[in-house]
Specification:
Elements lengths: L2 E8 L2 E6 L2 E5 L9 E5 L2 E4 L16 E3 L11 H6 L5 E5 H7 L4 E4 L4 E4 L7 E7 L8 H4 L3 E6 L8 E3 L7 H10 L3 E5 L17 H11 L3 E5 L11 H8 L4 H4 L11 E4 L1
Parallel strand pairs: 3-6, 6-7, 7-8, 12-13, 13-14
Antiparallel strand pairs: 1-2, 1-15, 2-3, 4-5, 9-10, 10-11, 11-12
Length: 264
């Protein structure tokens, strides 16, 4: 059994601490106010800043970067932080763009291991993502999630879904993985220029997915602080009120800027 401390810093950025390890997901530390281009005429403005500045995070052993090419998952301050990180795990195309010997690129299904003296080894397996409607991958780019396993887990793997819609490959992966704890990227992202097309899961998708895999704990992230998020906390909370308590009790809101312990 492992107690893990999760500190939600904002958006998809979470500090994960356990057994001497300190991992950071998708570092975003820029202040609010700026608009970021996402390609093909899409853009979004950052509305809120991080709950903690990078200098308050402390040493980080590894960064888990679901993709490097969108500012809501890696911004300028986050990119500067990577220079001091011993290991960055990301997509294959992201690894080529970032360069350097500290960056490991994975495609869905591939794994990498983190090891350090006196700490449990962590196996990191990339999981599939489709960051938009069918056939959008050449436009939206390569994205992965991460499944983390290590000795002593009691409820199953820790799964970071990454930015993805709900689709067949994701369902299949989730059913095989059977994660005990999920950092679930939501937001129902849309852009005016692309109309009804969605680029991340909605609250309804979250309930649908979790009905299939029954995780013990689900922590929503990537749902606030940006103009392109169409569904915030209120939307998911309203959806949860419509389902039986045995389905909704797994959902846990991480407080921003404060470590929250969860048994994994």
């Amino acid at each position: 059994m492992t107690e893990v401390r999760f500190t939600h810093i904002g958006g998809p950025t979470v500090l994960i601490e356990f057994a001497g390890w300190r991992l950071l997901t998708n570092p975003t530390f820029d202040p609010p106010g700026r608009a970021y281009a996402f390609g093909w005429g899409t853009s979004s403005r950052k509305l809120t800043g991080p709950a903690l500045p990078p200098e308050d995070i402390g040493p980080v052993d590894a960064v888990l970067l679901t993709h490097d090419h969108h500012g809501d998952n890696l911004d300028d301050a986050g990119r500067a932080l990577l220079a001091d990180i011993a290991t960055v795990v990301t997509t294959r195309t992201g690894a080529r763009r970032l360069g350097g010997t500290t960056v490991r690129g994975l495609k869905a299904g591939q794994s990498s291991r983190l090891e350090a003296p006196d700490r449990p080894p962590i196996d990191i397996t990339a999981t599939p993502c489709r960051h938009g409607p069918p056939l959008s991958r050449p436009i939206t780019g390569e994205v992965v999630g991460f499944a983390l396993t290590w000795p002593g887990q009691h409820h199953g793997p820790l799964w970071i879904t990454g930015d993805t819609v709900l689709y067949r490959a994701l369902r299949k992966t989730a059913a095989v993985l059977r994660p005990g704890t999920v950092l679930l990227h939501l937001g129902g992202v849309q852009f005016p220029i692309t109309g009804p097309a969605r680029y991340t899961m909605t609250a309804a998708d979250a309930l649908d997915l979790c009905e299939t895999i029954h995780p013990r704990t689900v922590c929503p992230v990537h749902y606030e602080g940006w103009q392109h998020f169409r569904e915030g906390r209120e939307t998911l909370a309203a959806e949860l009120e419509t389902v039986p308590s045995e389905r909704s009790k797994a959902f846990t809101w991480l407080p921003c800027g404060t470590a929250h312990p969860i048994t994994v």
